[in-house]
Amino acid sequence: MIITELKPLDQIINMVQPYKKIFVVGCTGCGTICHTCGDAQVKNMAGMIGGIRNVVGTIVLEYPCDARVVNTALYEEVGDDHVDAFLVMACGAGIQTISETFDTVCIPAVETIGLGKTEVVGRYIERCRACGDCILYDTAGICPMTRCAKGLMNGPCGGQADGKCEVGGWKNDCAWVLIYERLKKLGRLGQFKEFRDAKKHKLSVGPRELVWRREYEDDFK
Amino acid sequence: MILSNLLLNLSKKIFTITGEIEPLKTTSVNEIIKTALTLNGYVTAVNITDNPQAFAYMGGLYPAHLIQREIGMETIYQLTCRDKNRLGLFSDLLAASAAGIRNTLALTGDHTTLGDNPNAKPVFDLDSVQLTQMVRRMVDQGVDLNGNEIEKPPMLHVGVAANPNAKPLEPEILKLEKKVRVGAEFVQTQVVYEIDQAKEFLKDTTYLNTPTLIGICPLKSVKMAKWFDKECPGISIPEEY
Question: For residue A69, which of A50, B32, B67, B231 sits 20 to 30 Å off, Cα-Cα?
Answer without folding.
Answer: A50
